[in-house]
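User: Quick sanity check before I run a bigger batch. Here is a single chain. Can you write out its predicted 3D structure?
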Amino acid sequence: MVTSDQGRPYMTLKTARALTWTYLVLAILAVTWPGILPFARIRPLIFGLPFSMAWIATWVAGCVVVFGLLELVERKHRTEGN
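Assistant: Done. Predicted structure follows.
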């Protein structure tokens, strides 16, 4: 497990899972009605996508990053047997 200078772990498995759930709840609220209403417009275009579609794609890409980080934390805890 990666530890700080004081010997404590940077992030416990429980904390990582709680942060993941928090992000997922925020993502669901941000991409469904009524959370998307402030962002439901076409302009500006982002990489050729309407703004509302880019908004959703950004949250989905964020989910990939969050799940990847959760996997790293869980792998560290699995290898140490905690």
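The two ends are 9 Å apart (CA to CA).

User: Great, the batch can go ahead then.
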